[in-house]
């Protein structure tokens, strides 16, 4: 099962069938800097269990308000207990939060943001976050399924269910925190049903592998941030009766690029439709796990 734990870098694609549709790309301009959210002030109170349970059937995410800004780059949802190796999962998530903040990302963490009405704080944090980072342990899977000590009134269940309704799977990033869960087939219940098909970030180990996982998590968060910012722009009006032509979204200013043997190539037949944002690979923009519509249908890009 592939994971997103490996360090960023171009993936060599050697399928000879792609050659006829590829052409070398000249040097392209660097990406514009992404405006990062401002970190919020930390609070001292801790969360308490017993949040009212959210309905288990997720609804489609609500459309974002045009022009509205997100306060946080990501909402971090996790269980506070020990993991299968006896490590404090909460302490390891705090460590991850410190790394993300050091990289300039503002994140919502219950230890910092909980005060007053706990349910409202969790809901507001999810609404104000571009990405939802789900730190997966077996205890978390059990709690989200409503089988933990607090049943359907568990904070983890509330956060996951509400995030599904408000953000949707597309803006949720799965992070594996235990070695035995590197196989998504082990993800039981609704978490596995919703996130089991996505690539995940691996933070199951400590040391250098943990740091590499943080770099991958940062890349995933930045991709969600850029896509979320583009989707929150006001749509341009179109002429009545006209057929609008596919255009490049504001955060995707380049044609799609596929990296083959370290050399970027432009894909021919692109009509402007894709799902992921550009990243710089060897100084040039490339797409990661994007779906680009070609003349022959959808083609999954694996560059970057």
TrEMBL record:
InterPro entries: TIR_dom, Toll_tir_struct_dom_sf. Residues 1-10 have a biased composition (Pro residues). Signal peptide: none annotated. It comes from the Eukaryota. Residues 30-43 have a biased composition (Low complexity). Residues 235-245 have a biased composition (Polar residues). One of its GO terms (biological process) is signal transduction. Residues 1-68, 228-255 are annotated as: Disordered. Residues 89-218 form the TIR domain. Pfam families: TIR_2. This is TIR domain-containing protein.
